[in-house]
């Protein structure tokens, strides 16, 4: 076993009977553990695979096939599946005893590489369920952040509808990390994560582009869906896709057809309630003009800009504006690239920056913008007074 341990070997017994000499059986187990080798038989492996009814047990089963060790006969497999299942549910309910038993089993059943991954997944479930990092009942390399593997597993795991769970998880992840995950079609849990973590997840830039027609994986008409594309978190909304990034320069991954800008009339037509336009950069006849108010008022309330609109007509184009939505930090809106970005070092929440982008750059009607506000995690008050 020492000679082949580096190849993650699995040794199958052809004789299914337990060795009569108990000391010999113990020696086999000890040698298998020391050699990072899995010694099993058809009955034991089949019992373990068939007993893996949950997604968590399927994950462990796959890990055993790649990095299992020790002695796994029929009886051991039955005991292992029971312990692991109880441990997963124990982490959900903060049952320290059941969680510890599962974590200890993971460390003895899997090589270091795989036991670390599964152990950190149990830790993530423990933390998401409200447990403290220092009270996690296992001797593993504790870490505040979530591994990509653990987060991806949670986002694909069915049936976790607890908003408090996802709110806690959102505080230990980021938009950048989600963008690294393989979720081209999103998942219900990804939607829950973003909605529950609207106050902790942030992005510095948001760019809207027309959404190319899709077939089988397209969300139903009238719904929104979070996905991952081009290593960026993105929101699909009807005929648009809004990409988000923590670094402004990363949004350049998304190609866009440059636009001349929008008209002053279109700017005036934007919803009034909850949206304040603080300043606007205009261009007319090759000259540029910046219009802003001395106080916090919306520039659309100014008689001067109304007269300017009448005088310039369609000759003037607004190519940039600074806005805020609700009590958000001020956001820079570039109409040429359909991009909203934070100003200076501000960190707009996903709710703030996506709402600003859809209000400024999309043709969504007010009912659809209400749906957007609810979907991205705005408060009840925000939803009631959005427009």
Description:
The structure is a single chain. 41% of the residues lie in helices and 17% in strands. With 387 residues, the chain is α+β, with helices and mostly antiparallel strands. Among the domains are: 131 residues, no CATH class; 121 residues, no CATH class. The strands form 2 sheets. The protein has a 9-stranded antiparallel sheet with strand order 5-6-7-4-12-11-10-8-9. The radius of gyration is 28 Å and the shape is elongated. It starts with 9 loop residues before the first strand and ends with a helix. The C terminus is likely disordered.
| Terminal residue distance | 70 Å
Instruction: Give me the secondary-structure category.
Output: alpha+beta
How confident is the prediction overall: mean pLDDT?
A: 85
Radius of gyration: 28 Å
Quaternary organisation of the protein chains: single chain
The total of helices stands at: 15
Total strand segments: 12
Helix content: 40-55%
Strand order of the largest sheet: 5-6-7-4-12-11-10-8-9
Coarse shape: elongated
Instruction: Give the biggest sheet.
Output: 9 strands, antiparallel
Residue fraction in strands: 15-25%
Low-confidence stretches are 379-387
- What is the H-and-E element order? EHEHHEHHHHHHHEEEEHEEHEEEHHH
